[in-house]
Every structure is written in structure tokens, then in C-alpha cells.
Input
Amino acid sequence: EFLKTYKELKKEVKPEDHIYFGDGVHPTHNTHPTYGWIKKGKDKHLPANSGRSRINLNGALELKGKTAVVLPEETINADAMIRLGEAILKKHPKGKIYLILDNARYNHAKKFKQWRTSHKRLKIIFLSSYSPQFNIIERLWRFMYQRILANRYFSTFKEFQSTVMDFFTHLDRYRSPLNTLLTDNFQTIPKLQLQT
Output
């Protein structure tokens, strides 16, 4: 159902319009071990942080230019969604903005809906329930974890926070891998016919 809507939208958008995929992510200030080569019989000690501090990021990704708007937030709620909408509208003063979102409660909040009534250029499209595979910004979040957080220790929260925000400020550094990763070539699995 979502793919049908999305394909129709792509046919209708004008050159001055923009399609964004939005979502939040919450990287934690701790070591994220993934893999490593360790000699047999040897122990490998990984430094770790004892706290549970994290960054709350609210973001939106545009495929056309492989650009993202990512805002650090105290918490992600209706106010955070309004700030994200304002940042995207400011970035594109002309044309319609289509923002594809999941069904998190704050995306349906009355305050966010009311704000949108006076910002008609921003159109919201909701994904089908339990369909994160269609939200392309999820790939950007995973790429961020792989590139800057995996197997890496940050002694201070400030260093961790600075590294994460620097990643999004300088996405052009990763232009080549992102060009192949961030595409809308969705794979669908046909329904299986059960044999009796």
C-alpha cells in the first residue's frame, strides 16, 4: 500500500518539491562491539562507559541530494517535530515538502497537526504500521553506527556527541557509499501460498 502511494507521489512531484524520510534515533554513549580478530587463547579487553547517556536525534533525509536535516533534542515529541518541520521549510523556501513518517504517537499529536494547518507546504505521508524497511533514513542511522560508533570508545560524552553531530554536518565525506546505500529500490517479498 505504501509503495503504491510512494510511486504515485514520485510521478506527481514537481522539480521544486522535495520528499523526505523522517525518524528519530538515540545513540548511546557506550562501546558498540561488533567484530574483531583476536588470537586464540588471548583475552581482549574493551573499554566501556558506565552511564546510560544518549543523544536524541530527530532527522529527515532527502534522497534527491542525499542531504539530511538532523536536530539534537532533549526528547522527541510534538515540539521536536515542529522544529524539524520548520528547519526543512526554511531549507526549501519554495515548493511542497512531503515528509514520510512512521506511526509514532508524537507524529499524530494534536499540537503537530495544528501547527501543520498553518504550514500547508508540508505534507505528511504515513508508512504502513510495522514497516521500518520502507523508511530510508533507517539506513542512514545504521550507516552512522557502522562508520563512527562500532568498536570505538569515547572517554567523554562531549567527545561522543561532537563526533556524532560532525558525522551529519559532513555527510559529503561519505558521498560514494551513501549513493548506493540510500536508494528507493525496495525489495518486496510476495505472499507465500501455503500447501496443505
